[in-house]
Amino acid sequence: MSDAPTTVMTRLRDETRDLHASAEGKAFQRRMLSGELSREEYVRWLEQMLQVHHALEAHLRRLWSSDPDFAALREEQFQEPYLLADLAALDGASGSHAPLPATAALIADIERAGGETPLALLGYHYVLEGSNNGNRFIARRLAPALGLVHGEGDRYLDPYGEAQPALWARFKQDMEAVGFSSAQADLLVAAARRMFAGIGAISDELAEAPPAT
Question: What CATH number corresponds to the domain at position 125?
Fold first, then answer.
C-alpha cells in the first residue's frame, strides 16, 4: 500500500463532507434546487452572498498580489462582480437587504481571520469556489422557473459555463502545487468547515424570513 500523504484537496473534501452535506440539505437550498424560490427570495440570497464575497474578496485580492500561498487564485474566481450584475438584472440595485445575523457572524469571522490567520481565508474561498460545481445544476432549475435569460440574473450560479470542470480541475492542481504543510492544511480545513457552517446558518435564516409585503 502507498504511504503517500493525503493531499490538501482530498483533506478539504473528506474532512468537510459532513458539513457540506448539511449545508446542501437545508430547506432553503432544497427549494432553490427544485426551482421553487420566488424572485424576492432569490434576491435576498444573492444579497447575503454579495456581502460575504465582498468581505472575503477584499482580503484575497490584497494577499493574491503579495503572498505565494495564494497563487491558486485567478481573476475569474472573484465573484463579487457576478453578484452585482445579477442584482442589477433582477432589481436594478444592491444593498437593499441588511446582513442577517448569520451573515454578520460569518463576515466577522472572515474579518478576524484576515487580521489573525490570513491563510484561513483560502479555506473559506475553497468552499465558495467549489460550490460552482453544484450551482450549475441549480441554475438549470431556478433560472427557467424565474423567467431568467441565461447570463442575466444567473451569472453567480453559473459563472464558468461549460468551462466549469476544467477550471475546477485547474484550481485543484494549483492548490496542490503550492505545497501546503500539514499545519497549514489543518488551518484550511478548519476555515472551510466554518464556511460551510456559516452558509448553512444563512440558509436557515433565509428560510425563516417573512415574505415580502
Answer: 1.20.910.10
The number of folded domains in the chain is: 1
CB-count exposure of residue 181 (10 Å: 0-12, 13-18, 19+): exposed
33-66: per-residue pLDDT in tens? 999 999 999 999 999 999 999 999 999 999 998 9
Q: CA-CA distance, 126 to 14, in Å (whole number)? A: 13
Quick check: is 13 in a domain?
Answer: yes
Let me know if residue 111 belongs to a domain.
yes
Backbone φ and ψ for 77, nearest 5 degrees, come out as -80, -15
CB-CB contact of 86 with 154 (8 Å) = yes
Q: Is 1 a domain residue?
A: no
Give the CA angle between residues 22, 57, 136 to the nearest 5°: 50
Written as nine digits, the cell of 198 is 456559516
pLDDT band at 32 (very low <50, low <70, confident <90, very high): very high
Q: What is the pTM of this model?
A: 0.93
Closest alpha carbon to 94 in 51, 32, 61, 146? 51
Q: Where are the alpha helices (DSSP H) in 65-180?
A: 80-91, 101-116, 120-146, 164-178
Q: Is the dihedral of CA 178, 15, 137, 77 positive or negative?
A: negative
**Nearest Cα residue to 37 out of 153, 158, 200:** 153
